[in-house]
Amino acid sequence: MKTIVLSILTMQPVSKKDFITPALRECFFVNSQMFYYDGARQRGRKQMNKAIHEQVQDLWNCIVSMENAYSQFGKQHGLTMAQLAIVYECGCRKQVSAKQIGDWWNLSKQRVAQGVQALEKKGMLAAQRSDQDRRSVLLSLNEKGEAAYRPVIDQMIRAEASALESLGAERMQQLEGLLGLFEEKFEKELKS
Predict the structure, then answer these.
(1) pLDDT over 80 at 131, yes or no
(2) pLDDT digits (tens, 9 = 90+) for 27-68
(3) What is the Cα–Cα distance from 87 to 78, expressed in whole angstroms?
(4) What strand order describes the sheet that includes 26-30?
(5) Which of 28, 33, 143, 146 is the most buried (most CB within 10 A)?
(6) Could you read off the pLDDT of 159-184 as tens digits, one per residue?
(7) Are the C-beta atoms of residues 118 and 101 closer than 8 Å to each other?
(8) Average pLDDT, the chain
(9) Which phi and psi (to 5°) does residue 176 adopt?
């Protein structure tokens, strides 16, 4: 997202040169937030850094809240986050590898392995060696797992569908695009 700085006097974009001119004494907007520039470059930068930090914090809070919602939903059904991910993915696909679940849900190998072990201990999973990669094990819900967790999976799918429907297809595509762009640019900046 490009940051646009507007003069409060003219409501026109302010060039970077004008913005950092020490004689400039007016307030400015950064992405709809108002700041006062008193001529001290450092103070102006600190205010902008604070605004940027707050925006990133708001974004992060939304992501964490979503993760917490999934976690709480799992707890309501006696599942850890890893177990919920395994049950959900196995319920939505015929077979899936532990590595895929870890990648899709951003879970460590250890957390996924512990989740698999716990679900196997309960007798809910079937595991089979992959024909393509003998090192990989494909997971699926067995009959007992399907019977126990199908209502949980269906409830989760309905909740996700309802949330997506409320956004609409166009806004969802925009959201995906913006989050993807933010992630791409952020990672690029961290590496440079």
Answers:
(1) no
(2) 444 444 444 444 444 555 566 677 777 877 888 888 888 889
(3) 12
(4) 5-7, 26-30, 33-37
(5) 28
(6) 999 988 998 989 888 888 888 888 89
(7) no
(8) 79
(9) -60, -45
Please list, in sequence order, all residues whose beta carbon lies within 8 angstroms of the beta carbon of residue 37, skipping any fewer than 6 positions away: 19, 24, 25, 26, 27, 28, 43, 44
Closest CA to 24 of 36, 38, 10: 38
Confidence of residue 11 (pLDDT cuts 50, 70, 90): very low
Q: Are 6 and 29 in contact (CB under 8 A)?
A: yes
Q: Beta-strand (E) ranges in the chain?
A: 5-7, 26-30, 33-37, 96-97, 125-129, 137-141
Residue 77 structure tokens: 């059904």
Distances in Å between the Cα of 189 and the Cα atoms of 12, 129, 158, 182 are: 29, 40, 38, 10
Least confident of 11-20, 71-80, 93-102: 11-20
Contact in structure between 68 and 57 (CB atoms under 8 Å): no
Reading the block at residue 6, the tokens are 């507007």
In whole angstroms, what is the distance from residue 143 CA to residue 126 CA?
9
Cα angle at 119 between 117 and 125, to 5 degrees? 105
